[in-house]
Amino acid sequence: MSILARIKSFLGMEAKPDEKASKEEVEKVAEEKAKPKIGYIHLSGCTGDGMSLTENYDILAPLLTEMVDIVYGQTLVDLWEMPEMDIALVEGSCCLQDEHSVKELMEVREKAGLVVAFGSCAATGCFTRYSRGGQQAQPNHESFVPIADLVKVDLSIPGCPPSPEIIAKTVVAVINGDMDYLAPMMDLAGYTEACGCDLQTKVVNQALCIGCGTCAMACQTRALSMTNGRPELNEDRCIKCGICYVQCPRSWWPADRIKQDLGL
Amino acid sequence: MVLGTYKEVVAARSTDKQIQKIAQDGGIVSGLFCYALDEGLIDGAVVAGPTDVMWKPEPMVAMSSDEILAAAGTKYTFSPNVWMLKQAVRQYGLEKVGTVAIPCQSMGIRKMQSYPFGVRFLADKIALTLGIFCMENFPYESLRTFISEKAGVDFDLVEKMDIGKGKFWIETADQTLTIPLKETHGYEQNGCKVCLDYVCELADVSTGSVGTPDGWSTVFVRTDAGETVFKQAVEAGLIETKSMDDVKPGLGLLEKLATDKKTKAMKVIDERKAMGLPVPYKGSSEKEDPLANI
Asked: Does domain A3-188 sit in CATH 3.40.50.720?
């Protein structure tokens, strides 16, 4: 089985029999394409997003060795000068007081075709939004912002961390040039100020909530529960990752993709 | 297409006498879950289970037929079942989870499966989604208002609620009361007003009373997963079926109600867009078929 087919089968995305011919052609084209050059840039994050990527155990080895070229990244590649890259995955928010972070982010924008805010710290600031400085090792490091505050971001993959599946699905979409699948991630690049209270202001206040419970299911810190059919936020637990609003069926609705995935 | 994509639609009911007795209509959801549990097709199911407060359900993980049956019957208020799916996998350790969902809940589940941004190792464990037809849902206090105030019945005495033939039905041990559905309008939750889905178009199997006689249900078999379970349950003799052509009122009524819901919702969607309010769906001018769920 081809690598792409293995990944698709891992994700439950097997081609339907009648579509097989065309799918195989697509896979052939995909495999003949040059491997995308990927850089991994680590700013102020906990490495959880990179850890989540490695949780794609079944496909990780072929993914890293045969499908992409990792050309830059601390601990991954022995290289000081940032090379040209097709895709830069940026993990972590950017500390405005850390000149190295700011400089590196600016350089990424110049050297990378696509800049991806990888994980909620890069996408929305996530829990680094709570930083107020005054701590060791550098008390001056106080202001942490999502990378879209400083550079243009092409794709955003929120999550604390993003699930192994969304990472694998995104890689497959990038390699296939499946822009339809990536479209919501382009839109999410503009969603930089996230909070559990978005459910109240953007869903309940807007007469859109239907009490389905998807937000509370999705919350990665159990900050949400459902009371009388509406989400209730425990602000002390909320890390401002934005996942509750991103998963809400009333925030954005990928109707075509869902029907395609279900074979309907 | 107002009824969504489906492989087959039939009139059906559970052959189990006990299920027939306690089920809302044909006992399709209870029957299929019991079968799927017995055959190991699912390890458990998230259902709207009973609580200490009458008619106020909470999602629960049912691991046996008894627990499925304890949750049988429709409750016309919120049970955020999607919330419980993560617990079913993480805390109960289930590998194959079934769930019963109204259309908006199936939307949350399907969106999570296609775009599992922050939801880790859950999407592929949802093995069976049974959808129920839904016109609208009511906050608990709304239900209490029209049962206690409008019908004048003590909430605790109510044994069954139902919607049909233009009325809201309330059954107690010794009487059956009705409220015209018109009088319940204004009490439904607002989020339902932009919903274009009446017959749970994204479930594996969807079912409801409309279209078939009392004691039977209309069943749409939609996905491969749904077809496998439903066919096996029919072959095992746990569910009996009839052609929709042989029952009254038949598919025509379903088509009418589905079209009504979509037409009304499209009007609200267009009005909201004109006012600049957010709506996740396309307006009628933005899509080819104004009644499509896009």
From this structure: no
Low-confidence ranges of chain A (pLDDT < 50): 15-22, 26
Rama region for A134: left / alpha / beta (φ>0; ψ in -120 to 50; rest): left
Top residue of A16, A170, A212, A225 to mutate, by most chain B CBs within 10 Å, is A212
The single-letter code of the amino acid at B41 is L
Nearest residue to A237 (alpha-carbon basis) of A220, A252, A259, A221: A221
pLDDT, tens digit, for every residue of B213-236? 999 999 999 999 999 999 999 999
Report the residue of B6, B55, B115 to disrupt the A interface, i.e. the one with the largest count of A CBs within 10 Å.
B115
Q: Are the beta carbons of B104 and A164 separated by less than 8 Å?
A: no
pLDDT single digits (tens) B95-154: 999 999 999 999 999 999 999 999 999 999 999 999 999 999 999 999 988 888 888 998
- CATH 3.30.70.20 domain range(s) in chain A: 198-262
Assembly ipTM: 0.96
Which of A184, A212, A261 faces B80 most closely, judged by CB atoms?
A: A212
Q: Which CATH number fits domain A198-262: 3.30.70.20, 3.10.150.10, 3.30.450.40, 3.40.605.10?
A: 3.30.70.20
Give the distance from residue A142's alpha carbon to the nearest chain B alpha carbon, in angstroms. Answer: 27
How high is the pLDDT of residue A175? 83
Structural domains of chain B, ranges and CATH numbers in brackets:
8-135+194-286 (no CATH), 138-187 (3.10.450.750)
* Alpha-carbon span A140 to A134, nearest angstrom: 6
Q: What is the CA radius of gyration of chain B?
A: 19
CA pair distance B204, B225, nearest whole angstrom = 6
3-state class (DSSP) for residue B108: helix
pLDDT digits (tens, 9 = 90+) for A16-73: 444 444 455 545 555 566 788 999 999 999 999 999 998 988 888 887 788 889 999 9
